[in-house]
Amino acid sequence: MKDDLDKYIEARKKRDTEFEVGFDEGYRNFKINVLLRQLREENGISQEEIAKRLHTKKSAISRIENHAEDIRLSTLNKYVEALNKKIRFEIV
After folding, report:
1. Which CATH number is 68's domain given?
2. Looking at the domain assignment, is residue 91 inside a domain?
3. Region 2-9: what's the mean pLDDT?
4. CB 40 within 8 A of CB 51
5. Phi/psi at 20 (5° precision)
6. In the chain, how many domains are there?
7. In terms of pLDDT, which residue wins out, 83 or 23?
């Protein structure tokens, strides 16, 4: 069942293509941020610990987790490998 926010977003997308494009892109970026943070937390690892594993600072990890839209593929791969995971892409 859709809540009021979902209904608003759906209606706004239908009447405003700029909003639709910006929203979808922003949402994809947001999902990456959330997935990275969840992956780290599910593994019981702090930002400090993953920073050590990547030979960087905690502030760099925070930037990665909060602004993943700017992340390089090589950095994303190193972050995920530091958690003993692999990346799998799907193009649809």
Report:
1. 1.10.260.40
2. no
3. 79
4. no
5. -60, -50
6. 1
7. 83
Query: What does pTM read for this prediction?
Result: 0.68
The conformation of residue 85, written as its DSSP 8-state character, comes to: -
Query: Structural domain of residue 49, as residue ranges?
Result: 4-81
CA 63 to chain centre: 11
Q: What angle do CA 14, 20, 23 make, to 5 degrees?
A: 140
Distance, in Å, from the CA atom of 77 to the CA atom of 54, rounded to the nearest integer, reads 11
The amino acid occupying position 65 is E
CA distance 62 to 47: 7
Residues 6+ apart with CB under 8 A from 66: 33
Q: Which pLDDT tens digit goes with each residue over 16-68?
A: 888 877 777 777 777 888 889 999 999 999 999 999 999 999 999 998 888 86
